[in-house]
Structure prediction request, 354 residues.
Amino acid sequence: MKYKSLPPSFLELLRTLIRYPSVVSAEHAFFRVLQRELEERGAKVSWYEGVLVAQGNDPMSTMFSAHIDRHGLICTGPNEFQYAAFVAGARSDLLGNSVSEMLMQKIVERFDTEDVFAYEPWSGVYRGKGMIDGAYICPYRNNLIFSVTGLEHMVAGTPVAFTDKLTVTDNALVGQLDNVLTAAALVYMFERGFQGTAFFTAQEEAGKSWRYLLEWFRRFGGSTNQLFVVDTSPYPDFHTASQQDLVLRNKDANAEFNPQLNHRLVEVCQSLGFSYQFKDSYVDEQNRMLQEKGLPLASLGSTEMGRIINASNELVDGTTLQIPSSGYHTMSESAPLKSVAAFLAVLERLGNIT
Prediction:
């Protein structure tokens, strides 16, 4: 299908949401913003620990889930800041669950000279601004420590977000898109008349969001709980990301996904004229080439969908729908405009929006 320009109201919503902070483990203020935006669009909103639930008049018809946390820092002592996802996930040598040195080395220079601001985690009230002027791996704690100029007065527990805005180029959306992009899309679906259920989960980047989601299904789920988890999907560069409109998955490192829902996604993509790629097949092909060269193999990755399928004892089932992107987990993550347009169109078809 020929690319159609993105709806102005969706872009305005995304521009608004991307400016509000939602650092891993300090998402409360963003939940408040989401609640307002959803209720303005007619959704019934319920707030539980770690998950905001928005519902229309037919809540069990279609279910989507997007995580709303983004990467940032957390103050852990006088003039000391750490990567929030590592702190929230208790990933340090204290518990024998340390972050790999390779991952820390990637992050050490990823956010150098980025502007940041501190905020009160419940209300979102601004607490001051600063700039990251360096990072190092502490040899005693085997953990990543950031140096931030301008926030020396912050107290432990204060979240620090990256200063972000949306940039729209001729062929891409650019910003810290993971995962405010698909969260904005779900809010926009209610504007379009969606009557199902949308979940907005916290702490996915710390590997905890599935717990909050599973608790909801154990409280209120029906006999068939079929879920579409939406997110961005990383590729090594923008050219590679642009080779397909959308990304599907048969499985991740944790579980096999629902084949019937995947078949439905394929049918919808084909009927609308969108190209797609199964990410696990792509990783398998890359690993065959790496193995021939004697190089380390890539992981299939862990997703919210795989984690909840693995832990729910068949209570919850489903699959994923993802937007391909490059520059993953940076301030310049880029998603092709044509992919975002395709994503919105498929959501509308799945959500029975005419």
